[in-house]
Amino acid sequence: xxxxxxxxxxxxxxxxxxxxxxxxxxxxxxxxxxxxxxxxxxxxxxxxxxxxxxxxxxxxxxxxxxxxxxxxxxxxxxxxxxxxxxxxxxxxxxxxxxxxxxxxxxxxxxxxxxxxxxxxxxxxxxxxxxxxxxxxxxxxxxxxxxxxxxxxxxxxxxxxxxxxxxxxxxxxxxxxxxxxxxxxxxxxxxxxxxxxxxxxxxxxxxxxxxxxxxxxxxxxxxx
Length: 223
Ligand SMILES: *Cc1c(COP(=O)(O)O)cnc(C)c1O
Fold this sequence. Notes:
The chain is of the alpha/beta class. It contains eight helices and eight strands. The protein has helices spanning 3-20, 39-47, 58-67, 85-91, 101-114, 140-149, 168-189, 204-209; strands at residues 29-33, 52-55, 73-76, 94-98, 119-123, 154-159, 195-197, 214-217. Strands 7-6-5-4-3-2-1-8 form an eight-stranded parallel β-sheet. It starts with a helix and ends in a 6-residue tail after the last strand. Bound molecules: pyridoxal-5'-phosphate. Residues 33, 35, 56, 77-78, 200-202, 216-220 line the site of pyridoxal-5'-phosphate.
């Protein structure tokens, strides 16, 4: 595993994909997903200048936040169980995958109690696969209205997961669909909603062409 080489190559690939799409590379965050690695690998990326890291499970988030530098910005990208909300909001500044109205209300209430003010995204199940979490496209407007009305969380956009190993055409439908939904919600709510969290190791270039502002990269950093 050569993390430095992998990171350099991925940074260059993200920048090239942005330029190809006539976008500013600085508008795309390469979010390092560290769920499959231990503390030294995270520290190595930190020493290369990376500050945004993501975990998808609460115990691992807590273990890493406790042990690693305090200026890391931690993103929670996994499904969030209601009994894990307090620990997650105390340790993560960004929450990517709010997926029910009850969870939105609970996260906002607990953020009030803990005086935390995370950026949040709604997870949308654009592909409609039964195995995937998230709001349907039809549920997205009421969910966004609820989240936007909350006092303690800040709704910044949407997140989705594409089907595994999908063809480019399918990826374009999923990522393009999320971008179109974001545009519609932003207009209906009169809110900016700048964030599109979409694209992983296997599909980030297509996601960037479709407007991704956060690509969540795990395995390609640590091969
Ligand atoms: C693991 C994970 C990723 C990273 O996936 P890779 O294919 O390893 O890049 C991105 N998003 C979520 C929600 C994940 O759980």
